[in-house]
Structures are given as structure tokens and as C-alpha cells.
Amino acid sequence: MTSDPPRGRDQGLMMRLALVLLFVIWSNAFTAIKYLRECLDPMQLVLARFLPAAVFCLVYLLAVPRLRKESAMILRKAPAGLVAMGLTGVAGYNFFLYIGQSEIKPGAAALLTTLSPLFTLLGAIVFLRERVPFRRTLGILIAFAGLYIVVAWGKVGLGRVTGISHAELRYVLITALAPLCWTIYTIVGKNLLAKTSAVTVTYLTIIIGTLPFLAAAGRPFFDALASFSPMHWIALAHLTVLCTLVGFWIWFAALKSMPATSVASFVYLNPPFAALFGSLFFHETITGFFIIGAAVVLLGLYLAQSNQGKIPDATTQEPQ
Description:
The protein is mostly helical. 49% of the residues are buried.
């Protein structure tokens, strides 16, 4: 009995470290997307990224008896939820993000995706009936303020909200639809995780979300793949293996054990990490404002993650 609380704390710490690692991976996705858009249109890029992942997911689910049985159960009991997740988390999020990055830069896209924690905060209260502590809400808002400092004045790879002020408004609004889709994906997924495992939910939604983009699998698609340089293939492998197969699993594993608003707050790490890697790989200068803003983001994340175990999360209960 006495060993349970420390074990729970250790598991919570490991999950938070996994989420930090996840956003190290995802923060580099924006550059990979911009690079691949040189060769592929948005539909082709979604297909190139998710088709290999979907094939792997299908084979894996069929090969493991427990997962095969679990997949059949969740497809029978919650088909609408799985379709909604596939159409938002895979199809909608990525399609809107890829269209937006036709006209706005990676740093601006990273900033716009950080609307997700705010959307999730509202959605979790309304639809999941999450009891969100004031401290977590305050932490999310503080993290957003720190993010603004990094982007507006930090000038590391992002400039003064790079690209947004000069892009056409419609591309900004299209890109903003991506975090809205991710919020729906997260909220619906939180409920489904009460019924099944993170692996099953993740892999089924990847398969379902890929299906609409098979329409792009024509000769132009394969000709574009044939024109890839080695760097294009590396960028695609990063999106397919790390961002999709590994990243989606970590996200849902965290959602299974943590409140949706708490998990979503880690999205604020995206722009600072993108800026940091811009400094490391492209030798851009780290400014004092970047350090201040990053510290404010970390403070906000600390507040958003604290006291989690003291207030029950209604979403972990069996749905009625």
C-alpha cells in the first residue's frame, strides 16, 4: 500500500517527460512540412505521410489477437467517434495545416496551433464536464502570455509573429482550423479511451483518416515521390514514423491517464522548441526576450500541471 503513491508520481513524471519529448519531435514537423510542400500539394502530402503509417497500423492490429478483438469491439460500439477522430485529427488537422503553410511560415503555423489548449479548455468544460482548477486555467493563460513574448519579441526563427502580418487573412484562418480539429480529436478521443487502449484508438483513427486521401494516389503523386531528394525522404520519415506512429501514441497514452486540458497545455512548447532548434541548426541568435518568454511558458506549464491528483477528472469515469 505504501508504495502506490510514489509509483503513481513516477508514472506521472514519466508521462510528462514523454510529452516534452513528443513536442521536441512535433516542433520540427513544421519545417519538414514546409520542405515537402515544395514537391507535394496538401492532399498528396497527407497521403504520403499517413499511407505507410496506415498500412503498418492495419497489419499490426490484425496480427495481435488482443488488439484485433479490441478493434472489432470499438468499431461496433463507437463507429461515429472513430470516424470523427479520423476526419479531424488526421484529415482535417493536417489538410488545413498544409494549406496554411502554403502562404505562412513554419513559426507562424506553430503559433497558430497553440490555440488548441484554449479550445480544449473550453471544450473540456462544456463537453467533458472536466473540473478545471483555477490554477490550471491560470497556468494555461500564463503559458500563452509567455508564448507571445517568445514569438513577438524573441526573434529566434520566428521574428515578430513571422508571416502572419504579411499573409493573406484567409490562410491564417484556414490554419486556425487545424487546432480546432485537434481539439475535437482530443475531446472525442478522451471519451473513447475509457473503453479501449491508446494503441487501438490511435491506429484505427490513422487508418480511417487516411482513406479520403486515397483519391490523390494517381500518377502525379507517384511522379512527385520519384522526384524526392534524400532530404525529402528524411523529412517524410520524420513525419510518418516519429510524428505519427510514435507521436500519436504518446498523445493518447497521456490522455488516458491525465486530464485533457493538462495534456493540451504542452502544445505551448511547440514555438519555443521550434525557435530553439532554429538556433541550433541555423545559427540564429537567442535573445533575452526568448529566455524570458520561455521561462514564463515553463512557469505556466508548471501551474497547469500541478494539483492534478487532488481534483478528480470526470472524464476518467465510465461514460453513462
